[in-house]
Amino acid sequence: MSHMPGVAEFTHAPAYAQPNSAAAIGDVFQIAGSSSKVLIDAACIAALAHDADPCIAMAGQVGSQVKMRVGNSWLIASVRSLALDRQEKGVIIADIDFLGEGDEEKLTGRIYRFRRGVTRYPAPGTEIFPVSSTDMQQIYAADDRPHVQIGTVYPTADTRAALYVDSMLGKHFALLGSTGTGKSTSAALILHRICDLSPEGHIVMIDPHGEYGAAFTQNGAVFDVGNLALPYWLMNFEEHCEVFVTSQGSDRTVDCDILAKCLLAARQKNRLAESIGRLTVDSPIPYLLSDLTNILQNEMGKLDKGTGALPYMRLKTKIDEIKADPRYSFMFSGMLVADTMQEFLAKIFRLPSGGKPISIIDVSAMPSDITSVVVSVLSRLVFDYAIWARDEQQRPILLVCEEAHRYIPSTTSGSGQAVRRILERIAKEGRKYGVSLGLITQRPSDLAEGVLSQCGTIISMRLNNDRDQAFVKAAMPEGARGFLDSIPALRNREAIICGEGVAVPIRVALDNLEEERRPASGDPSFTELWRQSGGEADILDRTITRWRSQGR
């Protein structure tokens, strides 16, 4: 290796006199594992700033990449922070994070066969060079694994960013971003690309705002209160308690015990129960709600019961109330008594998919007090199906949860604990059974602790809140820390992606989606809409009718 100039004579080195894309721009100053320091010549960076290649023009700036030769390999590192050297004029000290290494092609010096991780670190004094667009294409070139292209790698103009589908889904993923950063459109883009790649897939998406139905009319099935027909008897005991038990404290324990006894008796009345040896209160066996209330009534009349009549009355009143309320008819209708479990699972899990691999479950029109139970039942069905189908041909299922902080909150008290428990369990164990979890949220700091760190791929759009940024940093792998500092500075529809789904951490400008494939989540234009008037009486009339009939 040729003699490198020392720090004192650094700026006067002849090697840097005529900067071009192939000339060195500085050298390594300190090596310390993942983060190390390099010295960069400010004059070189200034000269390269007008280069036609956008990658070389960005050389030495925060978020750019640099390369250095070690033996027969090129090491690639990203620049995390810059500071001016106080002793030596014109020298910049930069912190770098190593991303990975690639082999050097003998004749051209180009990088090929790039891979994550570093086997040999450079010695202090090693020259560093800017990374060109051709290098970037080699670094980010998708290998033979199945992948989807979702955008362009920043700062290049044409290097495509690829997500490796198997790695991303195999270890769960999270899509994060503040409101208005294009999160819904990005989620739709990724899911559309996956659906195009795997038309026979099985994706279940929980949509709390009813915005994705419009985006997946061609390649998905949309279920809402009108056509979901979720049978109430599919609920397990814990979910029954969330719906039927209204009391708190010690009364709740008493009510739950009574409900368990009566629910088991009601399930035993079904003919199916005779063929099953060990029937439990959780078994998905159909039963009649009227049977349940009759059993409660009979038990209440018995003299040997240990409690007064009040717990029985509380349960019976609540069940009758739900039966009579038309808002709950999508789940507690008398029409849902037949054993429709097979048809229901086939419809929701897209088995077979018939070219429409995604089912959107629109829970926006459901009564808010039952939404978490519906999400809990659907998530648990996905997980239970995967467990009991282990000996069959595998049909992995992806469960995507929009507004995930609602269902996996960091608080362990209050209602909605059933859904929190099942989603946490899927996050921890789903991978073994072929269940993948996709979490979309604008408040990662409100998510239950540990769930975000279970996500192998994190796609982060702009986050404005400091607490959220700190949370994401804690969950991200070490080498991506430099990228994370740019999270508050991302533009709309830009994302930092790191983890299993990508070869190395990347910043991506996401593709535009065709109009008909976009979710209905655009921001209203106040100035435009506030110039329009006319037809208000009809709007109010139709709105109030829908409001009163609790339908859309």
TrEMBL record:
Pfam families: DUF87 (PF01935). It comes from Sphingobium herbicidovorans (strain ATCC 700291 / DSM 11019 / CCUG 56400 / KCTC 2939 / LMG 18315 / NBRC 16415 / MH) (Sphingomonas herbicidovorans). Residues 148-382 form the Helicase HerA central domain. This is ATPase. Gene3D superfamilies: P-loop containing nucleotide triphosphate hydrolases. InterPro entries: HerA-like, HerA_central, P-loop_NTPase. It comes from the Bacteria.
